[in-house]
Amino acid sequence: MRKVYLDNNATTRTRKEVVEAMMPYFSEIYGNASSIHHFGRHARHAIDEARTRVARLLNAASAEEIIFTAGGTESDNLAVKGVAYALRNKGNHLITSAIEHHAILNSCKYLEKEGWSVTYLGVDEYGLVNPEGLKKAITDKTVLVSIMYANNEVGTIEPIRELAAVAKARGVYFHADAVQAIGKVPCDVKELGVDLLSMSGHKIYGPKGVGTLYIRKGTKITPLMHGGHHEMGKRAGTENVPAIVGLGKAAELAAKEREAEAKRLTELRDYLYQGITSRIQDVRLNGHPEKRLANTLNVGFKYLEGESIILNLDMEGVAVSTGSACTSGSLEPSHVLMAMGVEPADTQGSIRFSLGRDTSKKDIEYVLEVLPPIIKRLRDMSPLYERK
Fold first, then answer.
1. Distance (Å, whole) CA 325 – CA 306
2. Which of the residues 20, 163, 222, 335 could staple to 86 if both were Cys, CB 3.0 to 4.6 A apart?
3. How does pLDDT run across 325-356, given as a tens digit for each residue?
4. Residue that is last in its domain, among 206, 233, 254
5. Which of 219, 236, 254 is the last residue of a domain?
């Protein structure tokens, strides 16, 4: 049976080049990077090189603006809670959007229980945040705006530059969760004008369990992890040297290959969508038709339940998802699609196809071969579907 992996927004296969770069740091170069002897200095040098590679990818002013974390979720938590704690004497108001990843939403909900006020901006039918809406939401008590760069479920790319400019005009910090955007769209922190930006290794063909938070020099933030003086005093704990090296290598490769890969994936994504709509009726595109990630296609199949589609595709060797992997165990409708105004019944039949560097045209053709019979069979069993 052919195996086709189209769930790259959940995680990516770690590249061979990345694994090879990591291997020496498990057993040969094993010193603690905080030790001053030559074992430790070798490890420190590797971390410094990885930090420089990430800084280059983001066009950060200095490598010291890059803080290594355990992943995108920790980076998001550090950004939201760290700024809130640091500026609690200035204000207690935060702004985010209704379609954020739960690492942001649940951090905000936690702070609400601790006395902070949070505004959740709505989005339009395509999942876009309106800069004018942000302008109206900012108050004298606002200390942070956190809007994701690209949505993990539908791929919609937000107008981050415009949103960050609105925040800057009011003297408010701006954080972008760029976990899904890194390696797919340009992420120049100077051009975007953001103060903080999150990324994760396993979304760009690096290892799991490592990420970074870009913190513009001068940005006030309170550490969440307390211990030694690691990561410029912003994140205590002995560094995971192999994973950091892997992230650095993945960042280097992403910087080199992003543009060409985006073009290739756009062609495959559009080929998949055109193939679906020409073979299957009652299909809805979720997300913006143009302002979206090259690798992401979220499609709603009316009258069906997404989990059934996933399981049937899995039996044919095809891996897809209904949305965020972090909410795959939930029976609740997608909060992203609901915020976009999609009817609850229609959200249940939505499938996310997220392509990656291993995806080929033959993979797409195989999906287009096995998907239509699955949809037909499931609709024939659905009490909601009227045969046409």
1. 14
2. 222
3. 554 555 678 999 999 999 988 899 999 999 99
4. 254
5. 254
Q: Please, which residues bridge with residue 66 across strands?
A: 214
Buried b (16+ CB within 10 A) or exposed e, 313-348: beebebbbbbbbeebeeeeebbbbbebbebeeebbb
Of 13-27, 131-145, 319-333, the one with minimum mean pLDDT is 319-333
Provide the domain count of the chain: 2
Domain hosting residue 99, numbered range: 16-254
Q: Which of 23, 236, 326, 370 is catalytic?
A: 326
Q: How far apart are CA 175 and CA 173, in angstroms?
A: 7
Q: Indicate whether 386 belongs to any domain.
A: no
Answer yes or no: is 104 within a domain: yes
Query: For residue 281, what is the domain's CATH number?
Result: 3.90.1150.10
* Catalytic residue list contains 326: yes
Judge if 107 and 228 occupy the same domain: yes
Q: Which two tokens stand for residue 65?
A: 């603006």
What amino acid occupies position 212? T
Q: For the chain, what percent of residues have pLDDT higher than 70?
A: 97
Residue 323 has pLDDT above 70, yes or no: no
Find the CATH number of the domain harbouring 84: 3.40.640.10
Instruction: Enter the pTM of the model.
Output: 0.95
Distance CA(340)–CA(188), nearest Å, equals: 28
